[in-house]
Amino acid sequence: MKLRNQILGLGLIGLVMSVLVGGTGVINATRLSVAFDQSINTGLALQKSQEADMMHDAIRGDVLLALLSAANNDTAGLEESKKDLTEHVKNFNDAIAAMQNLPLSDNSKSHIQQLAPTLKTYVEAATMVQGLASTDAQKAQASVPEFQKAFAGLEETMGSLSEAVAKDVEAYSIDAHQGAVNAKWQVLMGLLVAAGILI
């Protein structure tokens, strides 16, 4: 074989090696980037789920403050309760809306949809108790069992949602880790194949 052909052959082999190893690296980098984005999104969903759960308890606190303020004829406390209730309901709705816009599993999205009616019932019950506390403390106290029922219903739904999101986080974390392991082996195999072709 002429020297010129040998040099051209080695150059071609080098090109094949570069394409093989580089292509494997690019493909795996893309896969890892997607997995990383999914992991971030599920982490954000878990954070929003926890925020919603905190607002769930905060609204209950607003109602209890309204009842206590009504019993003590504390006008300032009633106003604070009303203000806080409005803010916490808004934060609750914002957290749920943020979760709806995230690329979660069908199971998690189903739980988010199931949350809407129970959340509506809970907010309505809280608003009713808070409103009655400002005008009729006895009626407000009488409406507490209904509010507690709504609280328990939402708590159960929130628990199911948090569990579903946590499973998404775990699944995506496992996928990301497995993707990293696969990428390492694929690059190694690419190097070995390229070395074999060169030899």
Structure description:
- With 199 residues, this protein is an all-alpha fold.
- It has five helices and no strands.
- The protein has helices at 3-71, 75-100, 106-135, 137-142, 144-198.
- Helix 1 (3-71) packs antiparallel against helix 5 (144-198).
- The longest helix has 69 residues, at 3-71.
- The radius of gyration is 29 Å and the shape is rod-shaped.
- The chain starts with a helix and ends with a helix.
- The model has no long low-confidence stretch (mean pLDDT 82).
Number of helices: 5
Question: How many DSSP E strands?
Answer: 0
What structural class should be given to the helix and strand makeup?
mainly alpha
* Helix amount: over 70%
Secondary structure elements and pairings:
Blueprint: H1 3-71, H2 75-100, H3 106-135, H4 137-142, H5 144-198
Helix pairs in contact: 1-2, 1-3, 1-5, 2-3, 3-5
Question: Could you list some keywords that capture this structure?
Answer:
5 helices, 93% helix, mainly alpha, 199 residues, 0% strand
Quickly describe the structure.
The protein has 199 residues and is mostly helical. Helices cover 93% and strands 0% of the residues. It has five helices and no strands.
